[in-house]
Amino acid sequence: MPSAVDLARSILPAGAGRRSRQRAAPWIVLAALLVSLVALVPLAFIIWIAVQTGWETVSALVFRPRVGELLVNTVLLVLIAVPITIVLSVALAWLTERSDLPGARVWAWLCVAPLAIPAFVHSYAWITMVPGLHGLGAGVLVSVIAYFPFLYLPVSAALRRLDPALEDAAAALGLGPGRVFARVVLPQLRLAICGGSLLVGLHLLAEYGLYVFIRFDTFTTAIVDQFQSTFNGPAANMLAGVLVSCCLVLLGLEVLLRGEERYARVGSGAARHQQRSRLGHATLPCLLLLAATALLSLGVPFVTIGRWLAAGGSGVWRLDEIGLALGQTLFLAAAGALLATVAAMPMAWISIRAPGPLQRLLEGCNYIVGSLPGVVIALALVTITVRVALPLYQTLFTILVAYALMFLPRALVSLRASIAQAPVELERAASSLGRPPLKALWSTTIRLSAPGAAAGMALVALGIMNELTATQMLAPNGTRTLAMAFWSYSGEIDYASAAPYALIMVAMSMPLTWLLYVQSKRMAGR
Amino acid sequence: MKFTLLPLAGAAVLAIGLMAAPALAQDDGIIVYNAQHENLTKAWAEGFTKETGIKVTVRNGGDSDFSNQIVAEGSSSPADVFLTENSPAMVLVESAGLFAPVDADTLAQVPQDFQPASGKWVGVAARSTVFAYNKTKLGADKLPKSLLDLADPSWKGRWAASPSGADFQAIVSALLQLKGEAATADWLKAMKENFTAYKGNGTVMKAVNAGEIEGGVIYHYYYFGDQAKTGENSKNVGLHYFKNQDPGAFVSVSGGGVLASSKHPKEAQAFLKWVTGKGGQEVLRTGTSFEYAVGKGAASNPKLVPLADLQAPKVDATTLNSKKVTDLMTAAGLL
Known about the structure:
The complex is a heterodimer. Chain A is mainly alpha-helical. Chain A has helices at residues 26-53, 55-62, 65-98, 104-112, 119-129, 135-161, 164-172, 177-188, 190-206, 209-213, 219-230, 234-258, 283-312, 319-353, 357-370, 374-387, 396-420, 424-432, 437-448, 450-465, 469-474, 482-491, 495-523. Chain A is built from 23 helices and no strands. Chain B folds into two domains: 28-126 and 252-306, Periplasmic binding protein-like II (D-Maltodextrin-Binding Protein, domain 2), CATH 3.40.190.10; 127-250 and 321-331, D-Maltodextrin-Binding Protein, domain 2 (3-Layer(aba) Sandwich). Helices cover 41% and strands 16% of the residues of chain B. In chain B, strands 1, 2, 3, 4, 5, 6, 7, 8, 9 and 10 form a ten-stranded mixed beta sheet that branches. Chains A and B meet through helix 3, helix 11, helix 14, helix 16 and helix 19 of A and helix 1, strand 2, helix 3, helix 8 and helix 12 of B.
């Protein structure tokens, strides 16, 4: 799962750090450069393998009917699932933020909560409810259900911050409510929709477990198939190359669609509180929409897990096994989150304190790498460590590096926001009082950015806990995370034994999701 | 609170690390790259550890990825023992020259039929190919006579398999050896037209049971395993054994071998000896794996059709070519 908080990009106050431009200490730049270089390794690796394999083999492996099939599947999935997700999320966000829907606050939380359920658990639930479910239709259905909160979060945050004066002006000029929404509200949601859609799209490209359950082949599932048949054969790497190109296309598309418009409100005073629209007779159907969404995205997984837990009885609670998996998962999540946050620190500092062309380039690299599917990063790291860095092969270090690369953008976004709020003057004061640079930084900015760092770490940890493909390929011998155990049981159709793992993963993700929800509220000033 | 968060997080990481570190440590005992079913190898490892006190760390994966992985790791592989579900993976590692010879007394525990002449690895269990069919959708008289029949257009959309699994790829490798490359390539092409892909043999059986599809080519023990549990995924399933030396009657030998690069060769050899010996083979008879026992004088689970009655084709396990199979399957668009 790549960056969940990419969405926060659109929420950040634009150019918050411009005032305090200063020259960055060379060691910080060096650290940031180093992190970016490491981050670029998987990408460079794919290119290197392609060059090494030779054009003839590459074209034979890339231009074949199977790749065409996969491309059609993957493109159709993105083209159908993303627009549906946009419409659904905007509708839900408007209802929970701008209408007088009864219990709006509860519904808002229910729209975010599905984030706590790993995508493959959604799929596991659906395949239990509707055993024959498969193909594109099923892929779209489960994808929308699993990923709409990624769009709901930024869209609802953006809606909350809109200045109602613009809408009033449009209404005063004679536009009906529908046209006000289309011409005034919707355009202001553009950044949020673009960012969220990108995130959803990248998840669709990277997800593995979800599509295996419902037998829908995408590039990611095909890469894993090839990996399982040939380990690190050229066919897998070539498929990875095509998949990376798809990710780059999505990134480019987002930049293109995002545009350069300014969305900030200018003027004196604070924006007035928004009026909630009256739903009137539409209340019931709107409630039904929200109830249906909650039922599909929360009801189905919870009922299924409950059903399997009941069917399995106490026999499925193998406590020693579960305890071990829980311990290992927590350790990997905590260590990976720490590494990602530390690695993001220099970059985040530069982007606030000393922005410039170099910083933008480095940051761009990190976003691109963060958008790569876990399977691609893992494939690269496996091959590199086994060929040239054998002492690092199958070590804790390598898997933590993989996590850090995959989830760096999550840490970066949270850190950047909180560093922006730490006054640079404190750093200078500390320096002038005789602290050496690192110490000055530690005792001021780093301490003040701790809440942001903690939020970022939580997000990274959330990602790591639910990560499956990279973990399976890179984990040290004897490792068995919750996700791995869940996957292995459900692979043997022992759905009952898999249920406790699903439940624990959801239970552990819930608090982090709550944190994310609260943070998005706070960012909007409520 | 702001000031304590980071150190707190650090302390938490450290604490959890200390808790989990022993589980992640890998320097004591032997490491088994296990492509067999997790539960079976777990039972073997526990039995072995109980008897000898030697610790066993299991890394789970599949035949094909592990065999290729061991080749990629070469002489620096961390693995001591490699256990598979099928022979082609063993052949791949053997031909890369990465196996140490298996101890003579281990080889002596297993009949010649279930080990290669080279003595570089040894059979630890066996499984039979079957056509699992939905009893309500497919009458016993409509069953295919041969695996090759499934290429016929009349079977379009009616059968399933798990082509990305090593199990099915082993069946294809037997077909390749018995019928040659051209016939196999044609059959795979027809298969791509006719069949429905699932991931995992268990999933195939579940679909057959639910009536999503009439039949599927899998191994026998999925059925017996499910019957022994709840039977929920096999109550409508019948097993059809092709017999008659048909490629579809192929009996696949699961292998075990000790890596030449093993840092604990003595312990690794002892493990293999235990698995092929009385204790290990008894696990096959009494456990829930329902794979065939192969040790001399070892009996399989009485619920199974006896190995001797399967009329399996004579296949030389040492020449099963997994690389050629994945190439052919990739060319047919199955991978």
